[in-house]
Amino acid sequence: MALLTVAVCAVLAGATSFAAIADWLYDLDEPDQARLGFTRGVPAGTTMWRLLTRLDAGVLSAVLAGWLRSRTPSAPIRPRRYRTVIAVDGKTLRGARLPEGRQVHLLSALDTSTGIVLAQVTVEAKSNEIPAFTPLLAAVEKVLGSLTGILFVADAMHTQTDHAEQITSRGAHLLLQAKGNQPTLHAQLKTLPWAQIPVGDRTRDRGHGRKETRTVKAVTLHTPGGIAFPHAQQAARIIRTRTVDGNTSRETTYLVTSLTAPDAQPSDLQKWARAEWLIENQVHNVRDITFREDLHQARTGTGPAVMATLRNTAIGWHRINGDTNIARANRRADRRSRDLIDAVTSRYTSTQ
Length: 352
Prior knowledge:
Domain Transposase IS4-like: 84-314
Organism: Actinoplanes campanulatus
Signal peptide: 1-22
Pfam families: DDE_Tnp_1, DDE_Tnp_1_assoc
Helix content: 40-55%
Keywords: Signal
Largest sheet: 9 strands, mixed
């Protein structure tokens, strides 16, 4: 337990490798080492490596997600149609190339309201993200206790009938894109009478030389079985028009949701559809840029997944404490190691 606490603290302070985790422990003064449980010296770096490459990555992810949730402040008053939105996305660890040449690929689920990665599973060799979705869903349910009312958003790869059945059977909802991997569904959505449907919501963003307009239309699917996707209650079309340096591009996206119109207005669908990108922008990119994940060549045992989980934990910790610049938060934690140890090891009553 002491070594795992060290690993969590070290990555919260910006450690990017097994060696850096061991160095962080070595660099502490003796009183701080003693507070972590090391009163007769510290273990060798190889001991830390052996532990972190043999841990059950799934169990570790669940334990640390639960630990973060227990330390998340109570949410303020929420709007009437507030809904917990979980974004699902995969990431390849490009530096973790196994002996047979395969790279480790992980599928994760992010609570977009807190910034906590609730679950992460390793995609099996010679497979893809689709079979990993059900284990991920089960892992999220284990952490939360129930999925009732929760909305899952994901890219078009996960617009699968089995996924829809798995989600709705647990009392949850879906908002999924329709693209070429579901040609019948995509064709049906594309030929809906969009010209006759009024605009439901329009947003305009401007910044960094870019202008973007997003226009949403939504329609209730009245005919049961009329759309080639189970539990689809509404269809939505989002047109994004972007102008950068005088060049304008236009992108059209079609989506289906299991939520009815009273529970999901076009403005809600707009917001929730954009939430899908949060796992890429707020987690995966931070792991790459701040923690240099793609340069880390750990490949033994569960080491790659364990290190990714520790990075997820660091990002989630800093976000629930109000930080948006994770690199700066890492540096501050490293400068204040005593405060960091106090915060991580202190008892805390759950507010969730």
